[in-house]
Specification:
Number of strands: 11
Number of helices: 13
Largest sheet: 8 strands, mixed
Order of helices and strands: EHEHEHEHEHHEEHEHEHEHEHHH
Length: 340
């Protein structure tokens, strides 16, 4: 097995390398490029001459897993610990953070599971719906750098604790938005997975940084949060080449959560078709009540809007069915049945 970096060997030089290393399994390591076309062209060259390709933004662990699966017939790695659900916005101002915290509140209230929300938004900490008293992601920068020394127990100690879930607010330091390495982000996710049964990640609305991309790569389920705005749908389609660039061998699947939904702006099926994502659910527009929650720093669930709570419950029911989470106050026998 020979790994070849595109920083040392250009795509047009690959055929000469293949001739020199006949009989060897070769993998070309692609680095991140602002122009996704450059990456796709290099991948096409690799396909033509018959060598493997490892996509950008991978940690060492992800690289080893790829090689193991592609050349040694290994099964995908089974990650121990809790389930990770990454939520990403189709654009900014879709209500991603509010929806993520609402889901966490409902899951924590109804499921017999330890729940966490990890803020991995590079551009905003997402602390507007809570009077936050924990540490921010950027405050942990030195502890998570290059794989880090942060332990799961220490992560929990740094988090804000609510009645039903724990919360680590995201990056609030503009100078660090693009400085988190893939390894450092993977380390935070691994710590959260070990400390909690259910981890919801607020991955932000810009998949051009390691925080968002690692959240999507490590997730057991991905949910895209959008509104009915044409600009949100168009923006999501612009992300498609970037997501293909980092995970072309197995396209990422997404479920769809439509926020601020209103019947007057069209059918949910149209959005499903245009975004090529299956529907998980929708939440109504809380209008001035949503603004009031933000100003008073309280969760959107405190509005007690009947339709909002009903739709939130339906989505959590679907997630519970998917992951077999035991409900609160279940007897040991019924909990056993739920996990079968």
């Amino acid at each position: 097995m020979v790994l070849i970096s595109d920083r040392l060997v250009q795509p047009h030089e690959l055929e000469s390398v293949v001739e020199l290393l006949q009989g060897k399994n070769l993998v070309y390591l692609l680095s991140y490029k602002a122009d996704t076309g450059v990456t796709e062209d290099a991948a096409l060259v690799c396909q033509r001459i018959g060598i493997g390709v490892c996509r950008p933004k991978r940690t060492i662990e992800q690289l080893v897993e790829y090689v193991h699966q592609q050349f040694m017939g290994g099964a995908p790695a089974i990650r121990n610990g809790g389930q990770v659900i990454a939520l990403v916005g189709a654009k900014s101002q879709t209500g991603l953070t509010g929806s993520t915290l609402s889901l966490a509140e409902e899951i924590g209230k109804r499921m017999d599971r330890k729940v966490a929300v990890i803020g991995l938004d590079a551009f905003t900490p997402g602390d507007v719906f809570i009077t936050y008293s924990g540490t921010y992601l950027h405050d942990l920068y030195t502890q998570i750098k290059d794989g880090g020394i942060l332990t799961p127990t220490e992560l929990v100690a740094h988090m804000h604790q609510t009645k039903h879930f724990a919360f680590l607010a995201g990056n609030a330091d503009p100078t660090k938005r693009y400085r988190y390495s893939s390894e450092s982000v993977a380390h935070v996710i691994a710590c959260a997975r070990e400390a909690f049964d259910i981890v919801l990640i607020d991955a932000g609305s810009n998949p051009d940084n390691n925080l968002c991309l690692q959240a999507l790569l490590y997730a057991d389920m991905r949910i895209v949060v959008t509104t009915q705005q044409p600009s949100a749908l168009a923006n999501w389609q612009r992300f498609a080449p970037l997501l293909r660039m980092v995970n072309h061998e197995q396209p990422m699947s997404f479920l769809l959560l439509i926020n601020k939904w209103s019947k007057q702006w069209g059918d949910t099926k149209e959005i499903e078709r245009s975004m090529a994502a299956s529907m998980l659910g929708w939440l109504p527009d809380l209008k001035e009540d949503g603004m009031l929650c933000e100003m008073e720093r309280r969760l959107l669930t405190t509005v007690e809007h009947p339709k909002y709570n009903e739709q939130l419950k339906r989505m959590v029911d679907l997630l519970q069915s998917r992951f077999n989470w035991p409900m609160q106050n279940e007897s040991p026998k019924s909990k056993w049945f739920a996990r079968r």
